Amino acid sequence: MKVILRKDVDQLGSEGDIIVVKDGHARNYLLPRGFAYPASAGSLHKLEEEKKLKELRVKKELRTAENLARRLSGASLTFVMKAGEEDQLYGSVSASDVAGKLSDLGFEIDKKEIVLEEPIKVLGVYTVEVKIHNEVSGKIKVWVVKE
């Protein structure tokens, strides 16, 4: 049976591929779960419409991410922390701390989008990358100063 994949399926293909599978596999697994639909003239038209909608959605997400990256580039965060000898912090500044400060400034950034190799444990000025989209990232300044 010829089917058109609606989603990426391991060991079969990716979204939009037209593949031939056994009838039982299509009827019992792919079609009921919404992974595919039968290939026909109407289905091919539907596939083209879905591709157009997906492209529009991806372009919109990319524009939104670029705007957010532009706004983030001017952001500067200051953390006032207790520090001991040689400017070592009694604690650290983690990605969740940075996300919390950004939310206070009005940015909706998840802590998973903040790229920190390891938590900040020394006083100083750091440039932290924020991965907003697969293709777009922004940079913010993080100041860690002594209390």
Provide a descriptive summary of the structure in words.
- There is one protein chain.
- The chain has helices at 23-30, 41-72, 95-104; strands spanning 2-5, 18-20, 36-38, 76-81, 88-93, 114-115, 120-122, 124-131, 137-146.
- The strands form three sheets. Strands 4-9-8-6 form a four-stranded mixed sheet. It has a three-stranded antiparallel sheet with strand order 2-1-3, covered by helices on one side.
- The mean pLDDT is 91.
- It has two domains: 2-68, Ribosomal Protein L9, domain 1 (3-Layer(aba) Sandwich); 75-146, Roll (Ribosomal Protein L9, domain 2).
- It is elongated and about 70 Å long.
- The longest helix has 32 residues, at 41-72.
- The termini are far apart.
- The chain is of the alpha+beta class.
- The protein is built from three helices and nine strands; from the N terminus they run ββαβαββαββββ.
Mean pLDDT: 91
Kindly provide the name of the CATH class of the largest domain: Alpha Beta
Count of structural domains = 2
Largest sheet data: 4 strands, mixed
The order of strands across the largest sheet is 4-9-8-6
Q: What is the chain-wise order of helices and strands? A: EEHEHEEHEEEE
| SS summary, helix count | 3
Number of strands: 9
CATH topology of the largest domain: Ribosomal Protein L9, domain 2
Q: State the secondary-structure class.
A: alpha+beta
Beta-strand content: 25-35%
The coarse silhouette is elongated
Regarding quaternary structure, what we see is: single chain
CATH H level, superfamily name of the largest domain? Ribosomal protein L9, C-terminal domain
Distance between the termini: 70 Å
Q: Spans of 5+ residues with little confidence (pLDDT < 50)?
A: none
CATH architecture of the largest domain: Roll
Helix content class:
25-40%
Gyration radius from CA atoms, angstroms = 24 Å
